[in-house]
Specification:
Blueprint lengths: L6 H12 L45 H4 L20 H8 L8 E3 L5 H17 L4 E5 L9 H10 L2 H4 L2 E6 L9 E6 L6
Parallel strand pairs: 1-2
Antiparallel strand pairs: 2-4, 3-4
Helix pairs in contact: 4-5
Length: about 190
Amino acid sequence: MKRPLRPEERRLWAVVAATVRPAPGRARAAPDPVPKAGPDPAPARPAPVLEPPPPALRLTPFRVGELAGAKPPSTFRPSDPTPRGIEPNRLQRIVREREEIAGRLDLHGYDQDRARAALIDFVRRRHAEGARAVLIITGKGSRGEGVIRKRAPEWLGEPALREIVAGVAPAERRHGGEGALYVALKRLARD
């Protein structure tokens, strides 16, 4: 339901309407009677303060440790154990399944020690078999604060895997979303 116009709004509209010329062949509409200036029966509300629109989103490269909340981006150093993100073109090939996801490891129900051992063993075996990408399903944990979810990027950056892991990125929703990671593996060294 529309509210009736206030007298000051009617006056303003009359001023605006007087500046408009009708299109050829059309007559000017009869103006509404303009009330005389006088006190408003209702006090005028201040105009709402509009906040400026948020800045445009800017996508920036990230490292997996940032996703897990391990450290803010400003504290990363080259000696950090967390692996780099996957190169964008390669990530798109993995997401669109043009580069095969050679295996999936589901860490649901594991404690930290068993999860770490299983992750290292799984990645080493798949790399030895010539796999180029794998999916690690960590789960989100209770309230999205899963220990395995936070620690998996660190484990993938440990010396035992540093030489074979090319990069890590969060999985797309259809592959597990926040509770999964794509792991890109380096090519096998030819002897």
